[in-house]
Predict the structure.
Amino acid sequence: MFETLGIFMRWLHIASVATLVGGMLYGWLVLVPAGAALAEDARRALAARTAALYRPLVFGAIAALVVSGGYNLISTPGHHLRYYILLSLKLLFAAHVFAVGAVLVTRNPEHRGRLLAGGAISGLIVILIAAYLRRTF
């Protein structure tokens, strides 16, 4: 039973990260450059529509990451100080990704490309730290 729950929580964690960070990468590297060719009104309409469609995915991914991350932390106790230091850095970068995601889907910022870039880069750093922690500890 607990093994199945652990596998599901790991899958949920990975799928949520893929949704959140993948969407930011797509927005930064594909959607913003493609939207630059549009007129200002069309660009704003596209940004508003994509934000409305991405909103439930962002908030669902954030909720799933908090739940599955909490489960993962509770289910694997007894780490060293270095693990918790790196985990704290990972959580700070993850908080940045969450904040950027929330801003992108609740407002229509003018600096959308810069926000997407920062969120995507922070998300990739989170994935790098997670891979290191998984491999080392």
